[in-house]
Every structure is written in C-alpha cells, then in structure tokens.
Amino acid sequence: xxxxxxxxxxxxxxxxxxxEEFELFKVPDLLEIEVKQEVQDEYDTQFGASETEIxxxxxxxxxxKEKHETTIPYNKTxxxxxxxxxxxxxxxxxxxxxxxxxxxxxxxWSYDEIRQLSAQxxxxxxxxxxxxxxxxxxxxxxxxQQKNPTMTASLDIEQNFDFVPLQKWIRExxxxxxxxxxxxxxxKPITHNLDESFTDDEKEDVELDxxxxxxxxxxxxVRLRDARQAISDFFRTNHHPSPEDLRAFSDxxxxxxxxxxxxxxxxxxxKQIVCEPNDSCSRISSYFARESEPIRLLPISKHKExxxxxxxxxxxxxRKCFDIGSVHMLMDLTDLSPxxxxxxxxxxxxxxxxxxxxxxxxxxxxxxNAMDPSDLSLPIxxxxxxxxxxxxxxxxxxxxxxxxxxxxxxQxxxxxxYTINKWIKIRNDAAKNILPYISPSKRxxxxxxxxxxxxxxxxxxxxxxxxxxPDRMKIEDLANTLDMTLHAVRGFFARRRRLMxxxxxxxx
Length: 508
Known about the structure:
By secondary structure, this protein is mostly helical. The chain contains 25 helices and no strands.
C-alpha cells in the first residue's frame, strides 16, 4: 500500500500481521471505566454490552475525542474486517456511499475519492474502505434480487472492480495495481467506460472493425465492462453453451476459457439450474477430468482424422493459441484423448512451419512425403493391380473418385491415398506407352537375379540397330525411360559394338 501523510503531518504506520486486540488509544483507566459503566447501564441487557459496542462508544465519547485528537489517529483493528468499525465511521461511510451512488455521474470509485474519504474518516485505510464498498454492493444486489428474482447477477455491475469478488482480488494484488497507475506521460489511467475512452468515430471503428484481433488487446482497459455484461447476456441466451461457443467468446473478449467456465458454473449454482448428463457443461466437466488420460491404441477413423487436421491447420496458420478451449472443442467433435490432440498439434506445427512455403497445408505435406510406389510390397502391388483392372474393364466411369480412393486405402491397411494416386498415374502412363510398366513378377525377378529385364534388353537392341553410337542426350533419355544408370546404357552399347567388330573379323 502506498504511504501518505495525514492532515496532522503523521505518516500512516505499516500494517502488522499480529494485531493487538482492541488497543484503541492510551486513555486513563478511570475514564474508561466510567464510559464502560455508562454503556452497560444504557443497553441494560442480561449479559451487559458487548466489547465491540463498548469500544465504539469509547471512540465516539466527547471526552475521549479530546484525548485521541492529540494522540495516534490509527486503529490497528480496523485492518481486520469492516464489521468491526465504529458506528460513527459506518454512518459516514454509508452517507458517502449513497452520495456517490445517487448524486454522482460516475459510479466507479477512483483512488482519489477513496483517499479523500480516508482523510475524512481520521485515517481509515483505503483497503478497508474498498472492502466495505464491495460488501455494500453485495448487500444492495441481494436486496434487489429479493425484490426481483428474475434479475441477473449483473445488477449494479458498474460498482464492481473485476469479475471475482473484490475482497479476494485485494488480497491477491497490491493496492497500487488496483486503484491507480503511474501518472507519468508514458502511462495512461485505467478506464472501464467505453464512452469515456473513445470518441464517436473511434467507437464506430471498434464496433465495425471485425478484423481486429482482440486476443492481443488489453481487455482490462476497454473490454472489461463489456465482457462482464456479455457473460451475463451469454448466460441468459444459453445456460449450457458448447465448448466451441465458449472458445469463440474467449477469443472475442480476451477472457480465459477456464474463467468463463467457472463463472458460468457459479451462475448455474446460484440459480439452481440442474445440468443433465448430456448437457455441454457436463461434457466439459468430463473433459477436465480426462486431462491425464493416456493415448488409446485404437484405430482412428479417417473422418475424425480429417476433422482434427482441418481445425489444427486453421489454428496453426492463424497463429492462435492452442489452449484448453481448443482441446475441448476437438474432444467434443471427435471424442479423442487430449494427449493425442496435443501431440498432433505439436507434430503438424513443426512440419508446416518448417516448410518455409506460403500457405503450405497438411495435404501438401502428405502429397510431398507420400511413399514411392517402388517401395510397396508384392501383396500390396497385386491388390492394386486387381483394383486397377477391375476399375478399367468393369466400371463405366474410368476416373477414380475420392470415395473410391478412400475405400481402397482402407482395404490396403491404411495406405496413403496420395501413394495410391501416384501408382495409378504411373500405371496409366504405362498403359499409354509413355513409360514402361514393371509388373510385380518382373520387379521381384529383377531384384532376385540381378540381371537386366528382358523388355529392357529388347528396347536397347532396337535402339542399337537404329543408331549404334547415340549421343549423350539420347543416352540420358534411354536411362530415364528404362530406369537405368548412364553407365549401364553406355556399357550396353559399347559391348554390342565390340561384339559386332569381333563377328566381322571372324567372317573376314
């Protein structure tokens, strides 16, 4: 708490943790005894006046005032709780509260006003004044809700300082952060009123410009009051919002997803709204309980995998945070483990952001990293050949659709659709005599024997009869067409020329 001077020039002492019980001021014992006796006679109860009432009368007694005006104007017990303040202090607080509420244009208490009120109340600390104001607001809301049970919890919300109760907030934050900022030119005062913060033109820009990313903005300065009211309006329209709606609300107002969930839980509890097992709020509670759930070793359907990849790609390229709200949204759509979803996000984020290409998506990565058809096993190649011939000779539609590729992928133990599509393209080119097609049997025979395949030898002999000495460009073309090295093609032509010279010399 900031340290300041009283009117008599004395500094406010520091608050100690060990409070002494009702050590108000140093007064003569005789006067104190007389006042206590007067109070007990006045109340005339069976057990006498309480200790609090006696101390209140001691503080307000005229003779006692003359004594304590020249002594320390500070009461350590005031720092404990507002309920133990003297009666006169409470009356003056009530008068100031009502004057602020009904005679002032601004309903928010500024630090200057609280500081002035502290000086008027003989040095009562700002901390206790703020606590008393918060409790007084709670009492006012409770009275209004009794008169009108349908009234929402947003009543009199202008006099609250934050979403959480002010007493809890004061305990967690120092007073410097609550009521004022540094008044230098570089800092700006905190404003919670949108009308006071912007001009008419600027307010139109804020309301109409939907491209502004509100997540990176400072919601405490502009959106605090709007967010509080929006949560109440949001709760009135839907008592059980889905995780997707909560995440959209969190992105709009910059409020944490967990804070929104807890706020709605408190509102449902206050209105005694029962949540059914299939409601969104019940599912969200179960999602929180599944945070430590391990990854299930079960096959994931293509539909769920596609949903996860589409949402993850959008989150990665919009550079939004993959928070717990995003996890719950995906769990609500796919019912997958949160550990699996976070693993997928980390994997695709690393792959896409390291691609160094604009608009490089998950489908692009799968296409570029598809398995080469030459690496497929013999059973897979036979199944592909059977499906290809069946499609070619038994189907009226010759083009492969996405559904057919997906069904064939499931039949081939999850083989990538890109790999299947790549194999079909090679097979079509071979059927058009653009490229020679290597059947599975010939491929295995080539691997086992290590000899040149018969059709390659036949093609090379035909080229040798046309031109025994091809140039470099022709050799490279033959090597690419027959899937051979340049050294092998040159060696074939060199050996054939040597054999021709030997045969010619023997005949001569």
